[in-house]
Amino acid sequence: TSCQSSPPIQSILDKTSFGQIMKGLPLLDCQVTFVPPAPFFLRQLRDNLWVTSSSEPFHCLMIPGSEYSTLRQQAWNSNQHITLPLIALVNVTPGYTIACPGYTLVGNPIPSSSPSLVI
Question: Which domain of life is it from (predicted)?
Fold first, then answer.
């Protein structure tokens, strides 16, 4: 069994602003920033983890990296429709892109700490 498409479960610390928000705790020592009204709010938290907020659900496409057949010399991908709720915590799979009206979330490759050999 493989879990390559889903990262291991990580606990969220109550001491962080993110943990306090997710657990509905009082905000302690958090930086508050004024954000002017806009159709949506978008912030990258870390790596491929994003938080989005809007007044209505957003209909988006999750687009994998293109596959290329050297035999047929064709490129293709299979997009999947997803709907982001009013407030969403989005973990974008590395190699994928989530395209929404007005913004795009990119799943960048996460560097590996494993040694590699280049020949």
Answer: Eukaryota
